[in-house]
Specification:
The complex is a heterotrimer of chains A (about 325), B (about 260) and C (about 90).
Chain A (H helix, E strand, L loop, with lengths): L20 H11 L12 H20 L1 H5 L8 H26 L5 H9 L17 H21 L5 H29 L3 H20 L9 H8 L7 H18 L10 E3 L4 E3 L5 H11 L3 H14 L1 H21 L1
Antiparallel strand pairs in A: 1-2
Helix pairs in contact in A: 2-4, 4-7, 6-7, 6-8, 6-10, 7-8
Chain B lengths: L5 H23 L8 H29 L5 H6 L10 H4 L5 H22 L5 H29 L3 H14 L11 H8 L10 H14 L22 H16 L6
Helix pairs in contact in B: 1-2, 1-8, 2-6, 5-6, 5-7, 5-9, 6-9
Chain C lengths: L6 E7 L6 E8 L3 H12 L7 E6 L11 H10 L18
Antiparallel strand pairs in C: 1-2, 1-3
The chains are: A mainly alpha (about 325), B mainly alpha (about 260), C alpha+beta (about 90).
Protein name (chain B): Ring-1,2-phenylacetyl-CoA epoxidase subunit PaaC
Pfam families (chain B): PaaA_PaaC
InterPro entries (chain B): Aromatic_CoA_ox/epox (IPR052703), Ferritin-like (IPR012347), Ferritin-like_SF (IPR009078), PaaA_PaaC (IPR007814), PaaC (IPR011882)
């Protein structure tokens, strides 16, 4: 998802007997759905894993501004421009809420940003794919945000209080995103032949990258098992992916577009759609930095940060001068 | 409302709407690239307000023109010579300092202009101004704070802000250069004569720049040509290429 | 981290008559800017009529080890809660 393949330090989940008394107490709270708050005792690995997960989630929101921002200046009507701008602005807001949640764990936002820029932290693979035609904007809202919401709705129940509260706020705002996306792509799918072609092209290109967002199957992953025991992950990648496919296939059909995966088929026995997995070699390549846009995305983020340094320093220096003048006047 | 030439009123509305259209577009270019998340979000709010104002001004302009054109038609299907914005707003963003200086120089004018327009004899204009002036009051509070903070910040931020002011100042005068359209609007009580707003503007801008420890450059040359469409900068054409591309390449679509 | 803007906690009064409620945090160089940033970040959907900000480092918080003594005594004072009292239905809403 926005946080893919987050590793824990453990190679297996501890049994109750192996836990210290405070760890037992901690695990009891989680098992009873009592939220963990910043000043509560927590295992060091829980704290570190959360910083990685929330940090990666925050980075994804901020890097995620870029592919959609790519079309703000080319939006075809004033209303579409306003909707898209408000949407991309929300992503910045979501990044901000998540960095704030991470900051309660004893890491600062600037530290996290520098880790991203040094390549020591990741962001979601999906944002390394390009937006090539206007229908991509609809498809990103509908498919990418649609996939994200499935994960984020589950994460509202996550055990860490500040993360859970950020998710609740984000989910409230996200439903606007998926809906505006679908409304934009409806116009395209039901529009002129050229518009329909754009819509089909967008769905074909973004379908498998959207499935990748959930990450490879983790049913045998020890990291997932630990994260689920801590309730910082609530459902498996496969469960979430299936939920996404089941909800999205009828929406594709409604648009009258071809399904991007010809093997998609309703399975009566399972009560779910069968579908093809994305190319996981491609996924691992994107994670390693070889996606179509990795280099551009990072260059853009670094440039914004470096070009902005004089602004951040200038405003801070002014605040210091003002405070000093106030003290001198008293 | 006194009788007023429809075409002059239309031109006046284009001037208002093209200013917000072009500046809103420029500000939206920052989305995702600002120095810090809080500024990114704030700039997007400013751009959104300006796009909203554009819909109102150009929407009314289309009605006055009487050819059945919508705000979108006017924004996306006119060529550069038909645009009536001041040159100031079409200038490229430059660094963040230049963007904020341009914003402040515009906001100061806009907040004063909209204050007067609330008393317009044209009810539609008065209503648009009533809504927009609340937004403009916030914009000028925010942009003046940033200009002061960066002007009176580090040596580097001060120098960059002074350079921004030096570059932009020759474009300020166009906002106050009256012509026959302005005089017709003033005579009908629709809008103030922009020349009469200059003292109020100089007082506001002077106070802020003073606090920002920045000096208004010597020389009083004024670049003009946007408000009457006589001669825009080279930059406007590129902006329109980007903004109008989809509407031009796929005419007649619904989006 | 060098030159990082301070962290501010943001409290917003959602409607007239309600108390300010903690909504989140943000970074700003000073209090004035923190209020402007809070308006832009946390009231994008008309969520507020009044904003308080306080620099995060100035918030004194109870520590978890004190949680027992601070909060448990009030748990036993259930008479402070209106549902503690049985009021006959005939007397109407109270």
């Amino acid at each position: 998802m926005y946080a893919q393949m987050v590793k824990t330090a453990s190679n297996r989940v501890k049994t109750r007997e192996e836990m210290s008394p405070e760890e037992q107490h901690f695990q009891d709270k989680i098992d009873n759905d009592v939220k963990i708050e910043p000043k509560d005792w927590m295992p060091e690995d829980y704290r570190r894993t959360l910083i990685r997960q929330i940090g990666q989630h925050a980075h994804s929101e901020v890097v995620g501004q870029l592919p959609e921002g790519n079309w703000i200046t080319r939006a075809p009507t004033l209303e579409r421009k306003a909707i898209l701008l408000a949407k991309v602005q929300d992503e910045a807001g979501h990044g901000l809420y998540l960095y704030s949640a991470a900051e309660t764990l004893g890491v600062s936002r600037d530290e996290l940003i520098e880790l991203l820029h040094e390549g020591k932290m990741k962001y979601s693979s999906i944002f390394n794919y390009p937006t090539l035609n206007w229908a991509d904007i609809g498809a990103v809202g509908w498919l990418v945000d649609g996939a994200a919401i499935i994960n984020q709705v589950a994460l509202q129940r996550t055990s860490y209080g500040p993360y859970s509260r950020a998710m609740i706020r984000i989910c409230k705002e996200e439903s606007f995103h998926a809906r505006q996306g679908y409304s934009a792509i409806m116009k395209m799918a039901f529009g002129t032949p050229e518009q329909k072609k754009m819509a089909q092209d967008a769905v074909n290109r973004l379908w498998f990258p959207a499935l990748m967002m959930f990450g490879p199957s983790d049913k045998d992953s020890v990291h997932s098992e630990q994260s689920m025991a801590w309730k910082i992950k609530v459902k498996t990648n496969d469960e979430l992916r299936q939920q996404f496919v089941d909800q999205t296939v009828p929406q594709i059909d409604y648009l009258g577009l071809e399904r991007p995966d010809p093997t998609i088929k309703w399975n009566e026995e399972r009560g779910h759609y069968d579908f093809a997995m994305p190319d996981w070699d491609e996924f691992f390549n994107v994670i390693k930095g070889n996606g179509p846009c990795n280099a551009d995305r990072m260059e853009n983020r670094r440039k914004a940060w470096e070009d902005g340094a004089w602004v951040r320093e200038g405003l801070l220096e002014h605040a210091r001068k003002k405070a000093a003048r106030k003290v001198a006047a008293e | 409302m006194a009788e007023v030439d429809k075409d002059k009123l239309y031109q006046f509305l284009l001037r208002m709407g093209d200013n917000t259209l072009i500046l809103g577009h420029r500000v939206s270019e920052w989305c995702g690239h600002s120095p810090v998340l809080e500024e990114d979000i704030a700039l997007a709010n400013t751009a959104l307000d300006l796009i909203g104002q554009t819909q109102m001004w150009l929407g009314y302009a289309g009605e006055v023109q009487g050819e059945g054109k919508s705000a979108d038609d006017l924004a996306f299907l006119r060529d550069a010579w038909d645009f009536r914005n001041v040159l100031l707003v079409e200038l490229p963003n430059g660094d963040f300092g230049r963007t904020m200086m341009r914003q402040f120089l515009y906001d100061a004018w806009s907040s004063i202009m909209l204050g007067h327009l609330q008393k317009s004899t044209d009810e539609r204009i008065a209503a648009i101004a009533a809504k927009a002036s609340k937004e403009a009051a916030y914009h000028v509070e925010r942009s003046s704070g940033t200009v002061v903070g960066l002007g009176d910040g580090t040596e580097e931020s001060h120098n960059r802000m002074q350079a921004a002011l030096d570059y932009l100042w020759p474009y300020v005068g166009e906002m106050f250069a009256s012509d026959e359209i302005d005089l017709a609007m003033a005579a009908a009580g629709i809008a103030p004569d922009p020349a009469n707003l200059r003292d109020e503007y100089d007082a506001l801008v002077g106070r802020v720049l003073d606090e920002a420890t920045l000096a208004i450059p010597a020389g009083n040359y004024v670049h003009k040509g946007g408000r009457d469409g006589r001669m825009h900068t080279e930059h406007l054409g590129h902006l329109l290429c980007e903004m109008q591309w989809l509407q031009r390449a796929y005419p007649g679509c619904e989006w | 981290m060098k030159n990082e803007w301070p962290l501010w906690e943001v409290f917003i009064r959602g409607q007239h008559g309600l108390a300010h409620r903690h909504v989140g945090s943000l970074h700003a160089p000073d209090a004035e800017t923190a209020i402007l940033n809070a308006r832009d970040v946390y009231t994008r959907r008309n969520e507020g009529v009044s904003i308080w900000v306080v620099e995060a480092k100035h918030i004194a918080a109870s520590s978890p080890s004190e949680k027992g003594p601070l909060f448990e005594p009030s748990e036993s004072k259930i008479y402070r809660h209106p549902t503690f009292f049985d009021i006959p239905e005939e007397v109407g809403h109270m």
